[in-house]
Fold this protein.
Amino acid sequence: MSPAAAGVPLLEVDDLSIRYGRVQALEHVSLEVHPGEVVALIGANGAGKSTTLRSISRIIPIHRGRIAFAARDISGARPSDVVRLGVAQVPEGRRMLARQSVLDNLLLGAYTRSDDVGIQQDLEQQFARFPRLGERRRQMAGTLSGGEQQMLAIARALMSRPRLLLLDEPSLGLAPLIVRAIFDIIRDLHAAGVTILLVEQNASLALQIADRAYVLEAGRLTIAGPAAELLTDERVRRAYLG
């Protein structure tokens, strides 16, 4: 466990079960994320990784279990309430407003805020962090490259000033060079103290960047521990690291 993981968890998922009709998507999943940590959730396609994030964001209903954020039960909260509390999700596939500008997409990320001066400061901060977005601020989001869209998705989430950032498959569909750039950004966010729960199919990359990690198989957590230990765990190596 990382030094940051010593106190009260920022996020606590306890005995979570999710069903889609008769299909059990998650079963008895318990995990926690402490302030300042990057925690990775790895597993094969269909294991339930994205379902876990969507349940934390309260986009999908809970069949059983409890989700707490900053010691507050959010199991029955609305998605907009969860954003206001400080949870922002970067969804798989980025999901831009394609016909809106880069700037408009970023402003959308701040929709729960009313501090105009702070929003303007954060816009400039995102353009400093992602210079390409600054250059393309008036460009339609749908005309950006895949890597630029992923940067925009992360920047848009950061505009809500989240206490917890949920990243769903940030490397999906991107060229290796762009993937490295995205993971450099995640490292920078980690260094800046942003707390991150990372879902990532590229297990090697995820474990290299994370403090701790969980392995999800067919809706159940099977392995958990420090990311450095999972990198050398024979079961993880065989199943996910080739």
The two ends are 25 Å apart (CA to CA).
